[in-house]
Specification:
The protein is of the alpha+beta class. The protein folds into four domains: about 25-80, no CATH class; about 95-130 and about 220-260, RNA polymerase II/Efflux pump adaptor protein, barrel-sandwich hybrid domain (OB fold (Dihydrolipoamide Acetyltransferase, E2P), Beta Barrel); about 130-220; about 265-339, Elongation Factor Tu (Ef-tu), domain 3 (Beta Barrel). The chain is built from four helices and 15 strands. It has a six-stranded antiparallel barrel with strand order 1-11-14-13-12-15. The chain starts with a helix and ends with a strand.
């Protein structure tokens, strides 16, 4: 009995040699937190080192670009340094730019160009409906032919009247015919001569009318005033073209806009306080916004002798030393006036 009771008491005693099971989850959590902190510290240290390296590389590249030294490991060539001097902004403009129209009002029958087309001086751009003008021309030619026939008829009658006068004069000299016949024949001859002069005047007027009608027909053809490039097509077949805007919104005043690409230059607005640094013939370095690595040699053509009161600037014209196909009207450009 005492042995059983001792065994039961032994089973109820606490064994101090085994670890407490309740502390195991807490240690696991602590270990996980410590591991996370170590991982974060390692990541921060590595990223900080990379940022410093990037900043160092960027500073090296900037310094190399300023000193015109190629960066190691880069195959791109270093750009040439910009010229020093006054810098101003402007735009490419064309000295010869025109909106072409007809000299008369008419309906467009045919258009023979498109945007971007190169045209020569005198090239036909469009034709207007010229049916009525051609009818008037034919009528004028018929009147001219009638006047020519009338002149020929009067010339023949004058020849006959001159013969009659000579015969009458002969008979009168021989006292065979009356002198009245001579007077009548002479009067008839003078009348025919006067009629011939009038007919010739009518013939000249008819010829002038024909020339006028020919010119009118030619005015129905629109031609390029000079060689250039069409940059705008302002009308279509079937629309009314007129040199004036009397027809309102339904009438086109121009059929095309042509630019002479050989007349391109730069217009720059220079501050009044800096205009003393600019002079005609001065060398200029131009850089288009579209091609910032392309430096174009140019020179000052003229300083416009007037100021813009609102902007306190003076306009300066700059011409290119050579015209390039990449230069287009209205391109933005920065120029450096080399000093």
């Amino acid at each position: 009995m005492s042995d059983d009771r001792a065994a039961q008491l032994q089973s109820l005693s606490i064994d101090r040699s085994e670890p407490e099971a309740s502390n195991s989850p807490l240690k696991v959590i602590v270990a996980m937190v410590l591991a996370a902190l170590v991982s974060v510290l390692i990541t921060w240290w590595w990223m900080n080192g990379q940022i410093k390296q990037v900043r160092s590389d960027a500073a090296t590249a900037i310094a190399a670009a300023q000193e015109n030294i190629p960066v190691s490991g880069s195959s791109a060539p270093a750009t040439a340094p910009r010229a020093s001097g006054l810098v101003a902004s402007g735009y490419v403009t064309a000295r010869r730019q025109a909106t072409v129209s007809a000299e008369i009002t008419g309906t467009i029958r045919e258009i023979l160009f498109d945007e971007g087309s190169k045209v020569e001086a005198g090239q036909v751009l469009a034709r207007l409906d010229d049916k009525r003008a051609i009818i008037s021309l034919r009528q004028a030619k018929a009147q001219t032919e009638s006047a020519r026939r009338n002149v020929q008829s009067l010339q023949a009658r004058i020849v006959e009247a001159d013969i009659v006068l000579g015969r009458a004069q002969t008979l009168a000299d021989k006292a065979i015919g009356p002198k009245a016949a001579v007077t009548a024949a002479a009067a008839a001859l003078k009348t025919l001569q006067a009629q011939l002069a009038g007919a010739r005047a009518d013939l000249a007027a008819s010829k002038a009318n024909v020339a006028s009608q020919v010119d009118l027909v030619e005015r129905h053809v629109v031609r390029a005033p000079y060689a250039g490039v069409v940059i705008a097509k302002n009308a279509q077949v079937g629309e009314i073209l007129s040199p004036s805007s009397a027809g309102g919104g339904f009438t086109r005043t121009g059929i095309a806009t042509i630019v002479d690409m050989q007349s391109l230059e730069i217009e720059v607005d220079v501050n009044e306080g800096q205009i003393g640094r600019v002079s005609p013939g001065q060398k200029v370095e131009a850089v288009l916004d579209a091609y910032q690595n392309w430096k174009i040699p140019a020179q000052v053509v003229a300083i416009i002798p007037t100021a813009n009161r609102a902007r306190a600037t003076i306009k300066v014209r700059v011409s290119f030393d050579e015209i390039d196909a990449r230069v287009l009207p209205d391109m933005a450009v920065k120029v450096t006036f080399i000093e």
